[in-house]
Amino acid sequence: MERKQHSSLHGSFRSKDSSSTTGSDPREKIKDCLRKFIAFMFTQVGVGALVVCYAILGAAGFMHIEKDNPDEQLENVKQWRKSCAEELWNITVSINIFNESVWEQNINRVLKVFQNNITSAVHTGYNGRSAEDIWSFPAALMYSLSVFTMIGYGNIVPKTVWGKIVTIAYACFGIPIYVLYFCNMGKVLAQSFKWLYITAHECSRREDALFDEGEIQPIKRKITVPSTACLWVISFYILTGTIMFGAWEKWNYLDSTYFCVISLCKIGFGDFVPGANITDSAGGSHLKLVINFIYVLLGMGLVAMCYNLMCEDVRVKVRELREDLKNCLDDITLKITICMNDTKYYHQRQTRHIK
Amino acid sequence: MPRRKRRFASRVRNYLRGFLAFLFSNVGVIVLVVAYTVAGAFMFQAIEGASEIERVHNMTLERNYTAQYLWQNVTLALNLFNETALKHSIGIELNKYQSKIVTAVRNGWDGGRSSRQWSFSSAFLYSLTVITTIGYGHLSPRTSWGKITTIFYALLGMPLFLLYVTNVGQLLARWFKCLYALVCLCRGCPGFTRRRVVRLRTQMEFSEAESIERPEVWRPSASDSDVTPEYRMPPYPIYHHRRADYMRSTSMPQARSARSPRPVRGVSVPPYAVDSGASSDFSYVTFDAQTITVPISVCVAIMVGYILFGSMIFGLWEKWDKLDGAYFCFISLSSIGFGDIVPGERVYTPRIETSFIVCSMYLMLGMALVAMCFNLMQEQVIHYFACLKRALKRMCRCKR
């Protein structure tokens, strides 16, 4: 965060310099263009484009790496099923067919072995789809998003050695870019939201402000967006997501709220992922994945905005609280001393009266 | 009487302040995080444990039902001697059963594990992954109450963990700077310091003092500076005076008060040097561990070392190969957390409990370490930018 601020500060510093010393030389012009390009890269649009480009690049790369991977699990599972059927046949042949209980016992034993095999296969990543089905482009896009936003759904994971190594390298470069995006987006959204809030605030307060402008003017400048407003925005966004995913994925509302919160908090368990249903057809899930991509990326920006605004708000509140506390303490001490003095005076007066 | 009252009030206030400071101090935050995680572990265990047993029971029923079905519909209905037809129908039935198993595992059933899935240690790891936002997903809540609790647990826990990370990261950064200064730069040894002084003096004659200084704007407020003594000095003169008073009262020689014991060296500037601006370049001579910046390469080396260390530990413990271990450590520490490789995931292991605990410890320490490295790197980057900016400024001035 700090780093980015400085870079942008630095950029602005450079651009200011350049504007003061612009010449008509072609070399200067090129330099200026370069400088402007760098400045643009550090703006919101540039960073957003960078993030999207990086995600697409990563998606293509991962798709290329992982798609050729021959899936042993799939073959293994087929083999197990075949051998299981063979064994069942053997049992049926060897055991008397009219002895039902023994037959069932044996069948149960075989089935249990089969079940354990399948379970361990699922634990090591089998989900009934071949690598080509899994690593479609939108899925790879989702995967690269989940890497560099640190969500990590884990519904799709690299299985090859190169996939793992590339993931590590990709995360190393992707996370700083994402953090840049996060900070930038947060700042911009926070500023625009603040502006919106303040204009709305002024509009609603215009009648009061007309009376005594001199007094309200300095107060107005200190308006900070209250954290409840941020919470409203976030909860509204989550509600939108809830309804959207609930309608598409046929999840109930609790599940889709859970999914939205888990995604936006970057926890990402991966037990609910849109388009990851095993029984779902591959074609329909692609659009959902892309929309989920946009939803998560926008949501992250919104979370950053709320974080920014709430930080500011909390800082102001803490300062106010501290001042209040100080005032309160001062008041109390003053009162105590006055009280003591009063009793003293009272005593003195009493003694005087007695005299 | 009023004096006593006020003293009592102030004492209470002091206690309260001390307690609050402790809560926000490093130990307090660590205790708070651990307590929060333990509480979460108990809560999730209570919520999710009950439904887990039910699920296992359901799965057994399902298997029995499949065997029954095979008997009823396949073996009895078909001719026994038609092998291919029988095998075909058995295969279809098994395929159905398999997809049932896969869905069940996806929904959290864990085939015939020796221990319960929501044991205390795994619930502990689960709540840790929630508040660190790693989220492996090898365990996830299945009941609706579990989901609701998870949402609120995360909303409360994440700021807490953030506090922990920043606090402990700062602390570790401070310690590491001391260590780095002592070991790598050898600033502690007197001979080296003397040589350094000479070198710095010669340097200073060539360049104006501004070029070496870092402006205070860039410096984090927590660490004190070496260039502006009035920032750092205030606590120490008071200490010296108090010490001196004490010495005088016990009629000890005055000279001893000058070298008062300090755990961190770096305050060998005598107190009277504070107000004399001319001797401010003296403070270069003295060394304060907090003013140096650790190079980025060292930070990166530490992180890589920690990841390799983790891969070694997990390699020993879980029999993973090196790449898998390193991959797991990286994915965990960067809080991505795919959850495809998780310690204690092998279906039959007696040592699951300990491996979860080891993993939790590794994560807690690792997060703090990563925060430390970021702290140090950030300082270094800021320092570079400040240098660059100053150089640019000077260049511009030179042009004109």
TrEMBL record, chain A:
Query: Which key words tag this protein in UniProt?
Result: Ion channel, Ion transport, Membrane, Transmembrane, Transmembrane helix, Transport
Q: Which GO terms describe its cellular component?
A: plasma membrane
Entry annotated with the keyword Calcium: no
GO molecular function annotations of the record? outward rectifier potassium channel activity; potassium ion leak channel activity
Membrane topology (UniProt):
Multi-pass membrane protein
In the record, biological process GO terms are:
stabilization of membrane potential
Where are the stretches annotated Disordered?
A: 1-26
Q: Which residues form a coiled coil?
A: none
Any idea where the Potassium channel domain is? 132-190, 233-310
Superkingdom assignment: Eukaryota
Q: Where in the cell is it found?
A: Membrane
TM annotation in the entry: 37-57, 134-156, 162-183, 229-248, 289-310
Question: Which SUPFAM superfamilies does this entry report, sorted A to Z?
Answer: Voltage-gated potassium channels (SSF81324)
By sequence similarity, the record places it as follows: Belongs to the two pore domain potassium channel (TC 1.A.1.8) family.
Q: What is this protein called?
A: Potassium channel domain-containing protein
Organism per entry: Parnassius mnemosyne (clouded apollo)
TrEMBL record, chain B:
Q: Which SUPFAM superfamilies match?
A: Voltage-gated potassium channels
Question: Could you tell me the membrane topology recorded for this protein?
Answer: Multi-pass membrane protein
The entry's localization annotation reads: Membrane
Coiled-coil ranges per the record?
A: none
Gene Ontology molecular function, alphabetical: outward rectifier potassium channel activity; potassium ion leak channel activity
The keyword Ion transport is assigned to this record: yes
InterPro entries of this UniProt entry?
Answer: 2pore_dom_K_chnl, K_chnl_dom
* Alphabetic keyword roster: Ion channel, Ion transport, Membrane, Transmembrane, Transmembrane helix, Transport
Q: Cite a GO CC annotation.
A: plasma membrane
The UniProt entry's sequence similarity note says:
Belongs to the two pore domain potassium channel (TC 1.A.1.8) family.
User: By what name is this protein known?
Assistant: Potassium channel domain-containing protein
The protein's organism comes out as: Parnassius mnemosyne (clouded apollo)
